[in-house]
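lol forgot to send this yesterday, sorry. struct tokens for the thing we talked abt
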């Protein structure tokens, strides 16, 4: 397969001034007539991208030239001397047979599209690249009884009835856009409508379309949309630019959602919610993704990417924006910790594995493989660095200059950096290094206290062992100091250090690191302090500092930064688990230290603390993150150690857990708000510890039976399954009976079982694969069974006999023939084969080889399998 390189970028040799698309929709034979006005920009033949299209005819300025076109599996080539001409291309496609869910396809008898990254070429021949921007008009013709609504981008300018029970609609999108933002939807949907009045006083119609059975689950999505519109006006000064904003929810969707201009298409998982069917996490996810796609209207659509190597330009920035949105809606500290957890559990491993790539990848075989945690989440961390360095007002100045310069253009990450730098009259050239180096940087810090001068010196070193010729990054370190009683110390950098220390308050600073090694010295420190490092997780690095357990206990109890407090406790817990792993491996005994128990107890008994922070601080580190700490992952020992610490904390703090559980009960109606969410979080963490003790089975069962809301129901169910409570199987059956008609809830039912780690995990998977509700054609279902099993069920997936690997890899092969994009995603857990023992390594490698050798392997799967074996 062909490799694409960033360094090969060439501007297009034709521009498309306008395009008029006409769709005559039929499930098996949709006719697409594509009328383009082309203008030559440089010499050469016209090459249009196209895949799996049946060509009917090509007409150039009224003259049929079909026979002069060279067609191959990638597109169509035509020689012409003309500098300006009209080209009409007629093709036929079969949406009903499209199982890859890219291009135009069918879902629940409706038509919908997904064009990013390169799906438009499966609809018609076109210059399918983000730097070709054009004005789109779309005419849709379809059977009226089966397609009540006919939707496309922009504003509807015409509609009416036709003969043979058909009708039509014409949509005009006045904003020039690349074809990846094109969308079309048709079908018998229902909608809820609302309006939003912009700060300029313009009224925008808001419409959410869903399948009729889901019409009562759209309110939260609509509220989220209105909050997003208002927040973007208030925080970024960005106002919506069309008269209508439409969202369509579909059940079969490869991604979370898609920001098509004026017509977002969403995975129904990120639209539908009611307290009885959706958890707090689902509610938060909906608000965040609705926000994310809405925010793309400016960061992505109005200013788009020059090429796909710039994907992080729009995704890193838009993820940063949606993170800030959620932080402002709920709790900034809780959101920050959630994002750091996600980054560490999912992006750090990616950056340490064979698919590691910089946030601006330098090459790809299949672009769909680069919609990654690195491009999105690490990309957002890099945008956050600008924000940390420049502050909110400096960052906003940079955004304003970015829009002033680039509105309506397709640009690069350099253009973004230049706008940030110029608006603030600072040099940000070193930020470039974050875009081109892969791997998680290490930040090694040592500290020295000098009693005679009362000074305290930090020596900071940055490195990236896997990166050849690592060049230093511009790295802001959030910093403060505590005395031995936990009191904050006033920061007074020496004259030399002051140039690199930005004081944000008396007790909080940003250390601006630019070299491989750098010292920062503070004066008037009367006794050895405890440094609080990387406050707010100010850079996406692995921090190494030799804290004593007592230091960690102090930070956990007293630091002013909630991330550092959380991190200190998590480190204590992690150390405890690691000691237990060693004890298990050497066959020795280990008792839980009082230190851990005392800090945990104090946190739990302090009713003044934010319940959500307490809940997160006392949750055990995830298995994946624990595994990350080891060169070779001992699956069984880690699992056992984790289990052991859970029951130790359950026993040691039983009365405190019970008190917290009761304190957080709320019998009022479900509300999606900060306080209730925090209460449920702590309540359910408490219940999960209590549920580890057999005497609390009834308590867990009663929470299930109360059926108060999905958050509580699912928490109880998970605890019953994990600890094999007597009532677990009946409850699972009851749950299925109640919800078997609701796809999103059935996904939860599959996921719960897929993640339950026990000796029968593989047999459970085998049974579920045969279940009548399982289907490889629905990406959500695949993710909730196979994705969850292979990522989270360490015990099952890595079972020593290789059955777990085998079962998943067989499904990947079957799936690759239907939907390569989702098949490739499922490979991720296999790519980390080097982290396991020799026997598991060879089993995992063999699975990868088999997948790679499959006849007709897709380039999606080929790229990931071959890179991980290399
Ligand atoms: N729909 C995906 C997202 O919004 C790709 N653009 O991130
Ligand atoms: Zn996005």
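and heres what i got for the seq, position by position
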């Amino acid at each position: 397969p062909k490799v694409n390189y960033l360094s090969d970028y060439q501007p297009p040799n034709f521009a498309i001034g306008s395009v008029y698309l006409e769709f005559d929709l039929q499930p098996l034979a949709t006719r697409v007539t594509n009328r383009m006005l082309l203008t030559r920009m440089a010499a050469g033949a016209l090459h249009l991208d196209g895949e799996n299209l049946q060509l009917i005819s090509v007409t150039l300025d009224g003259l049929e030239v079909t026979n002069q076109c060279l067609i191959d599996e990638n597109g169509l080539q035509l020689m012409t001397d003309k500098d300006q001409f009209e080209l009409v291309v007629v093709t036929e496609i079969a949406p009903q047979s499209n199982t890859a869910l890219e291009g135009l396809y069918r879902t629940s008898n409706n038509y919908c599209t997904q064009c990013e990254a390169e799906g438009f070429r499966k609809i018609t021949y076109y210059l399918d690249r983000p730097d070709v921007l054009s004005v789109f008009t779309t005419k849709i013709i379809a059977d009226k009884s089966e397609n009540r609504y006919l939707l496309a981008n922009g504003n509807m300018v015409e509609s009416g009835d036709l003969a043979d029970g058909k009708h039509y609609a014409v949509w005009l999108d006045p904003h020039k856009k690349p074809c990846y933002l094109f969308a079309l939807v048709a079908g018998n949907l229902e909608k809820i409508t609302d309006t939003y009045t912009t700060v300029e006083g313009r009224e925008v119609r808001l419409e959410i379309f869903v399948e009729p059975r889901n019409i009562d689950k759209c309110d939260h999505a609509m509220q989220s949309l209105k909050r997003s519109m208002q927040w973007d006006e208030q925080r970024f000064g960005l106002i919506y630019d069309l008269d209508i904003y439409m969202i369509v929810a579909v059940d079969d969707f490869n991604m979370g959602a898609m920001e098509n201009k004026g017509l977002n298409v969403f995975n129904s998982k990120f639209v539908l919610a009611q307290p009885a069917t959706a958890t707090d996490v689902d509610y938060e996810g909906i608000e965040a993704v609705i926000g994310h796609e809405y925010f793309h209207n400016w960061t992505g659509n109005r200013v788009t990417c020059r090429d796909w190597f710039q994907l992080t330009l729009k995704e890193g920035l838009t993820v940063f924006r949606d993170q800030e949105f959620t932080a402002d809606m709920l709790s900034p500290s809780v959101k920050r910790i959630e994002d750091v957890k996600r980054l560490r559990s999912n992006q750090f491993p990616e950056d340490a594995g064979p698919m590691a790539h910089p946030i601006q990848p330098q090459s790809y075989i299949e672009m769909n493989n680069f919609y990654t945690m690195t491009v999105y989440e690490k990309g957002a961390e890099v945008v956050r660095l600008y924000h940390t360095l420049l502050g909110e007002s400096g960052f906003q100045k940079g955004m304003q200059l970015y829009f002033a310069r680039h509105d309506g253009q397709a640009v690069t990450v350099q253009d973004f950096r230049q706008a940030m730098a110029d608006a603030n009259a600072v040099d940000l050239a070193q930020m470039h290094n974050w875009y081109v180096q892969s791997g998680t940087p290490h930040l090694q810090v040592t500290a020295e206290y000098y009693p005679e001068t009362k000074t305290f010196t930090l020596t900071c070193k940055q490195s990236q062992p896997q990166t050849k010729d690592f060049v230093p990054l511009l790295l802001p370190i959030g910093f403060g100091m505590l005395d031995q009683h936990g009191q904050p110390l006033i920061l007074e950098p020496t004259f030399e250090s002051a140039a690199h220390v930005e004081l944000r308050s008396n007790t909080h600073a940003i250390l601006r690191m630019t070299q491989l090694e750098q010292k920062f010295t503070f004066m008037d420190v009367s006794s050895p302090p405890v440094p609080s490092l990387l406050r707010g997780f100010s850079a996406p690095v692995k921090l190494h500092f030799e804290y004593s357990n007592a230091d960690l206990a102090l930070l956990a109890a007293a630091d002013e930064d909630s991330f550092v407090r959380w991190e200190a406790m998590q480190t204590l817990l992690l150390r405890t688990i690691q000691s237990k792993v060693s004890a298990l491996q050497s066959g020795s005994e280990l008792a839980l230290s009082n230190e851990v128990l005392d800090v945990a107890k104090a946190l739990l008994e302090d009713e003044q603390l934010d319940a959500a922070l307490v809940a997160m601080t006392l949750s055990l580190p995830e298995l994946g993150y624990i595994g990350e700490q080891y060169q070779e992952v001992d699956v069984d020992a880690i699992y056992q150690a984790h289990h052991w610490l859970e029951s130790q904390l359950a026993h040691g703090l039983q009365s405190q857990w019970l008190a917290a559980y009761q304190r957080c009960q709320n019998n009022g109606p479900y509300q999606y708000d900060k306080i209730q969410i925090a209460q449920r979080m702590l309540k359910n963490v408490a219940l999960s510890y209590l549920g580890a003790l057999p005497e609390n089975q009834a308590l867990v069962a009663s929470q299930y039976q109360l059926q108060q809301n999905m958050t509580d129901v699912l928490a109880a169910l998970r605890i019953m399954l994990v600890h094999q409570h007597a009532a677990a199987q009946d409850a699972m059956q009851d749950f299925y009976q109640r919800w078997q008609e609701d796809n999103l809830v059935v996904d939860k039912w599959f996921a719960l079982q897929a993640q339950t780690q026990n000796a029968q995990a593989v047999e459970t998977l085998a049974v579920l694969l045969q279940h009548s509700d399982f289907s490889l054609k629905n990406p959500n279902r695949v993710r909730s069974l196979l994705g969850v099993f292979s990522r989270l069920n360490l015990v099952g997936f890595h079972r020593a006999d290789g059955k777990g690997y085998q079962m998943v890899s067989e499904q990947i092969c079957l799936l690759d023939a239907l939907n390569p994009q989702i098949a490739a995603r499922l490979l991720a857990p296999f790519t980390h084969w080097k982290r396991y023992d020799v026997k598991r390594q060879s089993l995992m490698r063999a699975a990868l080889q088999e997948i790679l050798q499959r006849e007709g392997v897709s380039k999606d799967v080929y790229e990931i399998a071959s890179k991980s074996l290399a």
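The chain is about 40% helix and 20% strand. anyway ping me if u want another try
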